[in-house]
Specification:
The complex is a heterotetramer of chains A (167), B (350), C (385) and D (148).
Chain A: H1 3-6, E1 11-23, H2 26-35, E2 40-44, E3 51-52, E4 58-59, E5 64-65, E6 70-73, E7 76-85, E8 98-105, E9 112-116, E10 129-134, E11 147-152, H3 160-163
Antiparallel strand pairs in A: 2-3, 2-6, 4-5, 7-8, 7-10, 8-9, 10-11
Chain B: E1 4-11, H1 23-38, E2 47-51, H2 54-57, H3 66-70, E3 78-81, H4 85-97, E4 103-110, H5 117-120, H6 137-150, H7 156-169, H8 184-188, E5 192-194, E6 197-198, E7 208-216, H9 220-223, E8 228-237, H10 251-260, E9 269-271, H11 277-287, E10 294-295, H12 310-323, E11 329-336, E12 342-349
Parallel strand pairs in B: 2-3, 2-4, 9-10, 9-11
Antiparallel strand pairs in B: 1-7, 1-8, 4-7, 5-6, 8-12, 11-12
Chain C: E1 5-12, H1 24-39, E2 48-52, H2 65-68, E3 79-82, H3 88-101, E4 107-115, H4 121-125, H5 138-154, H6 160-172, H7 187-191, E5 195-198, E6 200-201, E7 210-219, H8 220-224, E8 231-240, H9 254-267, H10 272-275, E9 278-280, H11 288-295, H12 304-310, H13 326-329, H14 333-349, E10 362-369, E11 374-381
Parallel strand pairs in C: 2-3, 2-4, 9-10
Antiparallel strand pairs in C: 1-7, 1-8, 4-7, 5-6, 8-11, 10-11
Helix pairs in contact in C: 3-14, 11-12
Classes of the chains: A mainly beta (167), B alpha/beta (350), C alpha/beta (385), D mainly beta (148).
């Protein structure tokens, strides 16, 4: 008899599969419908006027609903901070290594997380100016994935003081 | 013991499927309403506690976003239980007892419509010998119901009567999901959903949120003209294994009721969170309620069951009836786990 | 107003990547039994049970405390389940302590655990949701940009993180329960380990562990009966802030600074660096030691790294940090915070064995979680306040 | 544009993972027993037998380590008829979940009875274990059927 047949079982494999219908919520849906058309929408906090990007249901700082008119933002911004990821992750289909970035879009007061492309790893740095690289228009959907990645802009770096509050 | 009272309560409407809003968007108006009703500001909050479950949302750390609705800035003293908000209220009550806080905000929220709730609940069962069989929550409750029926502990007519009563009460509750005039004969002639349970024996699946403001006697008067004082609050957990428990009674409710002092006086109103009609009867008996108690004037869980918020809402509903003068003494109940595994009992007085 | 409360029993499992010789109940039980033995009590002596762990998806059981409660003496008793992200182990201990401090119970058992070998934490933490792009690879992916932010603003030398990693792994060699025992640890070894989430190297990150930690809290009357030293709870504190908002300082969140101020005030501490003998700080990535030295007000802003550099945080230094080896050496996520509290208590009870700080009387336990937004802390002391 | 509708966007989201459940010594023996087509219950201090076995006595928390054979026949103490099984559930035709007290056991345990139709189910009926063709050591190796 093989060892397997004589030894007590130690570990069982137990599959769990649950189906959900994920619901983005009212505010995020507004953002997603706009990005389907290539528009980037933020919204102002009713208390201090800061522009939250993407739109969200509440200003977390004040616990107030954000329901005013959206603010359209350009697809350029500043790389606030980043990490070069060299470790695989089950849910992330990106080729390693990749640069995970936090980008402060021009006119926004909150950062978005995305990745950087078309850039030598050695040259990535804080304060870089970047622009969104979009998928071909015919592939646009209600997803942040319409932006493939950000690419460096040929512009002088943003001054540290201009973005240090967003790290 | 310090005197602690429920000084404010708000809740969302229970909906079978909230199509527009995510959890934070459900919660925000509930907290706004509480703020307006009591006049509290974040500066008053010395403790915040919430209840929710990651598995309802299908993602880890689903509760974190709840803080967005609070506006937790400057930072707040805050905790979270992976339980119904009723247990979050218990934790807040403990903090007030120890003198850590005088005013606490408690909330619970859930959006179970995103998943297949009865099957999601199978994940609560022993993961080695029970869960791999995927018994859905309705089937598990049905096993208990049949034990009650076969054992002569109750009749299906009594179960139907509980459902009729709750749904009739719910007509006056604008937050209820299932309300109306039903008749016992009609219900008994309906087919089984999972035999021996009919649709009417089961609570609906509900999306929703609820919130309560708690205050010690030092501060209660600042928020409410007639606070609902917590005179006893206790919760007990039984072993889960269905075979070792007597499923035809709720031992943990009995123990909690005794410790909370339910029997020390007449109970005008009882708000029960039992999700199935037979469980409502078991809880009613476990609490030792008499004919002079109005059970579930709001309709209870059978009229709306926003998981993780429903137990807290029962405490809020009971308190609201004291605050509006309808009741002098009330009891509220919350439950968790298969077949009433864990139960919380809260006695409130004017 | 609160009842004086002490830690009278502590139990920890051996931490390892896989404790696959144990079930989940068996894992909790190993810690809880050891805590009972330490306290010289039986299951019957416990009034209530508080269970803590991180997301249910790690083990794939919804509210697992419901099926676990009876294995640790909780049948027909009150049971609470706490979940406050990575700080949960600390928060859970605080809830248990509160049950005694409030006078509600006399003696409470608390157990925090994680059985990470049942799944994969990076999977559970990076579940891809519709409409979004998953770019954050687990906790390392989240925290690496913040570490870069700290380096930029503090001007800390780039090898600071390496020094922390070497120190904590050396400490772990003195703790038989620690998951990682790297006998040949050295500066070069850490420096040459692969970059995972630049600037965080492989040997600067925490492992993924199975394990459980248990503590028993008792009121003054019962704790006074204990034959063994008691760790008296002088203060506990919890602070939270939202994950994001405009202008949020994610590197040095206000929640940790507020937490530290409030904690020290309650504990009557004027100068934490002088008065506290040792600390167990939640450091899942090496750079968080200097960051939290500043956060817990042991060092002035932007100078936390100097403590590491000067050797102050080593065993034998003036404020030894993570003598147990810390989260860098054992990380059963849901338990990691409670281990910090328990190790702080062991130090002031004089029961930390080979990693004991000589003469430790006052110790700090610290845990954090979420996006550096949940903080739970305690001060324990060998003497009553 | 965004004003078109207020309804939230929705999308399917599946949570799927195969967990590795380590069993510990007692459950390891129980599942090994199933693989060998034997059902084992746990003996408690008072001599009563728990089925399913637990490592710790649910009432006293005492450690249990003695396993004794139970079944394969038993009595249905309660049952619930599932007329429309979900995809996760063990049978793709209508069946009963039942609390079955196996011969030699003192507690009933939750399992599945493949009875064909509801009218074949009755409280107090006897059932017996039917093994799947290839028992691998899981609780789903078993199904119960009405005793002939």
């Amino acid at each position: 008899m093989s060892d397997e047949a004589t030894e007590d079982l130690r570990v069982l494999r137990m599959p769990v599969e649950l189906d959900y219908t994920y619901s983005a919520g009212r505010s995020a849906s507004r953002f997603l419908r706009a990005i389907q058309e290539g528009k980037l929408l933020g919204q102002r906090c009713p208390v201090d006027g800061k522009v939250y990007f993407p739109t969200r249901g509440a200003c977390p700082q004040h616990g107030m609903p954000i329901d005013g008119e959206p603010v359209e933002l350009p697809d350029t911004g500043t790389l606030v901070t980043y990490s070069i990821v060299r470790v695989p992750s089950a849910n992330i289909p990106l080729e390693l290594p990749y640069v995970a970035v936090q980008v402060l879009l021009d006119g926004a007061d909150t950062v978005m997380m995305h990745v950087l492309g078309e850039c030598d790893l050695e040259t990535v740095h804080m304060g870089m100016r970047v622009r969104a690289k979009w998928k071909p228009k015919e592939e646009w959907s209600t997803s942040v994935a319409n932006i493939l990645y950000f690419v460096p802009l040929d512009e002088p770096d943003a001054a540290y003081d201009s973005y240090k509050e967003h790290i | 013991m310090r005197d602690v009272a429920v000084v404010g309560f708000s809740q969302s409407v229970s909906l079978r499927r909230e199509r527009n809003r995510n959890e934070v968007e459900i919660l925000i108006p509930v907290l706004q309403e509480l703020r307006e009703a009591t006049g509290y500001t974040n500066e008053d909050l010395e403790f915040v506690c919430s209840g929710s479950s990651d598995y309802l949302a299908g993602q880890a750390f689903a509760f974190v976003a709840g803080l967005d609705a609070v506006g937790a800035w400057p930072p707040v003293c805050e905790s979270h239980v992976e339980m119904d908000g009723a247990w979050a209220l218990y934790e807040a009550w403990v903090k007030i007892q120890m003198g850590y806080a005088d005013v606490a905000l408690v909330y619970g929220f859930g959006k179970p419509s995103m998943g297949d709730l009865p099957i999601t609940m199978a994940l609560q069962l022993d993961p080695y010998t029970v869960m791999p069989l995927w018994p859905d929550a309705i089937s598990v409750a049905a096993l208990q119901a049949r034990l009650c029926l076969d054992g002569g502990v109750m009749t299906d007519r009594q179960m139907a009567e509980a459902a009729v009563r709750d749904r009739a009460h719910a007509k006056s509750n604008p937050h209820a999901q299932v309300a109306g005039d039903f008749d016992v004969e009609g219900i008994l002639s309906e087919p089984y959903l999972v035999s021996p349970l009919r649709k009417h024996d089961c609570s609906p699946i509900s999306d929703g949120a609820s919130a309560v403001l708690l205050a010690s006697s030092n501060r209660a008067g600042d928020f409410s003209k007639r606070p609902a004082w917590i005179r006893g609050i206790e919760h007990i957990c039984e072993p889960q294994d269905l075979g070792v428990r007597d499923l035809t009674r709720s031992r943990s409710t009995e123990i909690a009721a005794e410790k909370a002092g339910v029997g020390a006086g007449r109970i005008d109103v009882a708000e029960l969170s039992a999700p199935f009609s037979h469980q409502e009867i078991l809880v009613e008996r476990g609490l030792g309620l008499g004919a002079d108690t109005t059970v579930n004037p709001s309709g209870g869980a059978l009229a709306g069951n926003p998981l993780m918020a429903v137990g807290l809402a029962r405490i809020g509903e009971a308190a609201a009836r004291i605050t509006n003068g309808e009741a002098e003494r009330a009891v509220a109940h919350a439950t968790s786990g298969p077949c009433l595994q864990q139960n919380l009992v809260c006695v409130l007085e004017g | 107003m609160a009842e004086l409360t002490g830690v009278i029993g502590i139990g920890q499992t051996k931490y390892a990547a896989k404790r696959d010789e144990l079930s989940m109940p068996g894992l909790l039980r190993e810690a809880a039994e050891r805590a009972l033995e330490d306290a010289e009590l039986t299951w019957k002596d416990i009034d209530a049970v508080v269970i803590g762990k991180a997301p249910d998806m790690f083990e794939g059981v919804m509210m697992p405390e419901l099926f676990l409660v009876d294995a640790i003496g909780g049948a027909y008793k009150p049971m609470l389940r706490v979940h406050t992200a990575g700080s949960v182990g600390g928060s859970t201990a605080i809830v248990a302590a509160s049950l005694v401090q409030s006078g509600v119970h006399d003696r409470v058992l608390t157990v925090a655990f994680e059985k990470q070998s049942e799944s994969n934490a990076t999977w559970a933490l990076s579940i891809a949701l519709p409409f979004s792009v998953a770019t954050v690879a687990g906790a390392g992916g989240y925290f690496a940009p913040l570490v870069r932010g700290y380096i930029r603003r503090s001007g800390a030398p780039e090898d600071t993180g390496i020094r922390v990693a070497v120190k904590d792994r050396e400490h772990a060699l003195k703790n038989p329960l620690a998951h990682l025992h790297l006998e040949d640890i050295s500066f070069e070894k850490v420096a040459n380990s692969p970059m995972l989430w630049d600037p965080i190297r492989y040997l600067e990150t925490c492992p993924s562990s199975d394990g459980a930690c248990a503590m028993i809290f008792a009121n003054e009357k019962l704790a006074d009966r204990s034959d063994k030293p008691v760790a008296w709870v002088h203060a506990t504190e919890m602070k939270s802030e939202p994950t994001m908002f405009s202008g949020r300082d994610q590197v040095m969140p206000r929640a940790i600074l507020d937490n530290a101020k409030s904690l020290y005030k309650k504990a009557g501490i004027q100068n934490p660096r002088e008065e506290i003998d040792c600390a167990e700080i939640y450091v899942p990535f090496s750079w968080f030691e200097p960051m939290w030295m500043e956060g817990m007000l042991f060092a002035p802003t932007n100078e936390g790294w100097k403590m590491t550099y000067e050797g102050a945080t080593k065993l034998g230094g003036d404020l030894p940090v993570n003598c147990s080896g810390g989260v860098l050496s054992s990380n059963p996520i849901g338990a990691s915070g409670m281990i910090r509290f328990a190790e702080a208590a062991l130090q002031v009870r004089g029961m930390a064995g080979e990693h004991q700080v000589e003469g430790a009387k006052k110790a700090l336990g610290h845990a954090y979680g979420g996006g550096s937004q949940y903080f739970s802390t305690c001060i324990v002391c060998s003497e009553k306040p | 544009m965004s004003q078109g509708t207020d309804a939230s966007l929705t999308a399917p989201h599946t949570l799927s993972y195969t967990y590795k459940r380590s069993l510990g010594p007692l459950l390891g023996r129980f599942f090994t027993g199933l693989r060998d087509r034997q059902i084992l219950g746990a003996k408690r201090a008072d001599g009563s037998v728990l089925m399913p076995p637990k490592e710790y006595d649910p009432d006293t928390s005492a450690a249990l380590d003695e396993l004794v054979p139970v079944g394969p026949g038993g009595v249905v103490k309660s049952w619930a008829w599932v007329s429309a099984p979900r995809k996760q559930q063990p049978l793709d035709r209508a069946f009963a979940y039942a609390l079955v007290q196996l011969d030699g056991a003192d507690t009933a345990f939750l399992h599945v009875v493949d009875a064909g139709e509801e009218s074949a189910m009755q409280t107090g009926m006897r059932v017996t274990a039917r093994w799947s063709d290839e028992a691998t050591g899981q609780i789903t190796d078993l199904t119960f059927i009405p005793e002939a």
